[in-house]
Amino acid sequence: MIFILLILSVVAGVFLGKYFGQKEKFSKNLLILSAGFLITICLNEVFPQVYTSDIGNLGIFVIGGVLLQMILEALTKGFEHGHFHHHGESNILPMALMVGLFIHAFIEGIPLANETDPFSPYLLGILFHNLPISFILGAFLFNRTNSKVSYPSILIVALFALASPFGMLLGNYFNPAWQPYFLAIVGGIFLHISSVIIFESNKNHNIDWSKIGLVILGVSLALMMHLFHDHSHVGHHH
After folding, report:
1. Do the beta carbons of residue 46 and residue 193 sit within 8 Å?
2. d(Cα 43, Cα 39) in Å, to the nearest integer?
């Protein structure tokens, strides 16, 4: 079930990107909404699990996650927060970008090992986060005048869609005691991505009320998930 949800979130995003990719405001709003959701999941779900584990110095791994995301962004050129530029008219993504996106999604999937709850806030955070990235991917690959639906494009989408499920599969082979380390790294990645999207300076540093509204909406959605989710089993896979 979780596998299917992970793949569907990418397919849905790509589909939206194919048909609505010209609407740059739509993709920007989707990103801002997901950033509000993501930072709330990070602070309410991921970090409490990290810091209530019996392992000390996990903050180092959170910082490691932030630094890792900075390195990945050198490959992806900020694709995760909507910074994509049409390089010529070839509809093949640069290899570095693909590698960066795959690693990013793969690492996010590892803490899902042994997760059985389809309403897990961490899982919902990833699904919500997948949508805007896949939207941009779909817009990039399928939404240009002369771009045909080519096998390389489909392969790229398939690779990205399967990256988190692969991570989840591999996570089953790791020692469950390592879970807090992976969660800490992903927490750092989430924190970096969401804060960059939220705090990117507005034009002339004016207050952008629509942006603030979208962040609040994303935060509210995540808080509702947090409040209504049964946390009695949290930590069952530590």
Report:
1. no
2. 6
Report the C-alpha gap between 88 and 102 in whole angstroms: 23
Cβ-proximal residues to 93 (8 Å cutoff; 6+ apart), any chain = 137, 140, 141, 156
Is the CB of residue 133 less than 8 Å from the CB of residue 30?
A: no
Sign of CA dihedral 127, 132, 137, 142: positive
H helix intervals, the chain: 2-20, 24-41, 47-51, 59-76, 95-109, 121-142, 151-171, 179-199, 209-228
Cβ atoms of residues 42 and 194 within 8 Å: yes
Distant-in-sequence, close-in-space partners of 163: CB < 8 Å, separation ≥ 6: 101, 102, 103, 104, 105, 106, 109
Q: What does the DSSP assignment read for 197-211?
A: HHHSPPGGG---HHH
Q: Name the residue with tokens 């990107």.
A: 17
The residue to which tokens 């970008």 are assigned = 97
**In terms of C-beta density within 10 A (0-12 exposed, 13-18 middle, 19 or more buried), how is residue 233 classed?**
exposed
Provide the whole-model pTM.
Answer: 0.85
Tokens of 222: 């995540």
User: Residues 32, 215: contact at Cβ < 8 Å?
Assistant: yes
Which value, in Å, is the radius of gyration of the alpha carbons in the chain?
Answer: 17
Tell me: the pLDDT tens digits for 97-131? 888 889 999 999 999 998 888 888 889 999 998 99
What is d(CA 31, CA 26) in angstroms, rounded to the nearest whole number?
Answer: 9
pLDDT per position as a tens digit, 65-101: 999 999 998 888 777 776 665 544 444 567 888 888 8
